[in-house]
Specification:
The chain has helices at residues 13-24, 52-66, 89-117, 129-132, 138-158, 176-179, 183-192, 201-211; strands at 4-8, 28-33, 43-46, 69-74, 120-125, 163-170, 223-226. By secondary structure, the chain is α/β, with parallel strands linked by helices. The protein has a single domain (4-174, 201-224), classed as 3-Layer(aba) Sandwich (Rossmann fold), CATH 3.40.50. Strands 3-2-1-4-5-6-7 form a seven-stranded parallel beta sheet, sandwiched between helices. Strand 1, helix 1 and strand 2 (28-33) form a beta-alpha-beta unit. Helix 1 (13-24) crosses helix 8 (201-211) and helix 2 (52-66) runs parallel beside helix 3 (89-117). The longest helix is centred in the middle third of the chain and has 29 residues, at 89-117. Keywords: Oxidoreductase. One of its GO terms (biological process) is monocarboxylic acid metabolic process. Belongs to the short-chain dehydrogenases/reductases (SDR) family. Residues 3-176 form the Ketoreductase domain. It holds the Pfam family adh_short_C2.
């Protein structure tokens, strides 16, 4: 019987690629989304990770329709970039609430079911900027950095129940957002990456699918960079 997998923010970009990879691996994938339209070919439920009530309702719906989720990919997140002197409290706290506290809300609720199953995977999608920092992204870098402490604490707290908890940290990825960068800026970014290019969303997704697999059952509390070497030494 296939495992139920949740991908938050899975209706586009890296999240959608992860959903496809998990489906290809034989999992029953449920995509959650806050706005827009759900992708075709997947079970889907609306969830706002900034609302505990919304997370609870979404999980209850998923459990009633498809069973207890065994693989949880906390991917949903936002950016509100800006220079620190112009960054408002709201710009900072909104990003922390969505990216870090949102991941906590999802993982906390998921743990109820995982403890019953006595197995499972918590996979948090981080970022290379958590290690390197990024001008104009104080809020985003802080939120992604916090995921590591979050994941490692989950790993220690519930690891004895057969539940792993890891962070997959992408670097620069070919997405709709990076596609809007000018050619000179793209070349500048690519030149800073040892492998000399952006990754595809599928390359990130394949690593997530591996961490979700039985072959990765002894990996927990890990930070797995998928950044072309950009974060080396940090």
């Amino acid at each position: 019987m296939s495992s139920v997998a949740i991908v938050t923010g899975g209706n586009r970009g890296i999240g959608l690629a992860i959903a496809h990879s998990l489906k290809l691996a034989g999992h029953q994938v449920v995509v959650t989304y806050r706005s827009g339209t759900p992708p075709e070919g997947f079970n889907s439920v609306r969830m706002d990770v900034t609302s505990t009530e919304s997370v609870e309702d979404a999980f209850s719906s998923i459990e009633a329709q498809w069973g207890i989720p065994e693989i949880i990919v906390a991917n949903a997140g936002i950016t509100k970039d800006g220079l620190v002197m112009r960054m408002s409290d709201t710009d900072f706290t909104d990003v922390i609430d969505a990216n870090l506290t949102g991941a906590f809300r999802v993982a906390r609720r998921a743990t109820k079911g995982l403890l019953k199953l006595k197995r499972g995977r918590l996979i948090f999608v981080g970022s290379v900027v958590a290690s390197t920092g990024s001008a104009g992204q104080v809020n985003y870098a802080a939120s992604k950095s916090g995921l590591l402490g979050l994941a490692r604490s989950f790993a220690r707290e519930i690891g004895s129940r057969g539940i792993t908890s890891n962070v997959v940290a992408p670097g620069f990825v070919e997405t709709d957002m990076t596609a809007n960068l000018g050619e000179s800026r793209r070349n500048e970014i690519a030149a800073s990456v040892p492998l000399g290019r952006f990754s595809s969303a599928e390359e990130i997704a394949e690593v997530v699918a591996f961490i979700a697999s039985p072959q990765a059952g002894y990996i927990t509390g890990a930070l797995i960079p998928v950044d072309g070497g950009l974060g080396m030494g940090h």
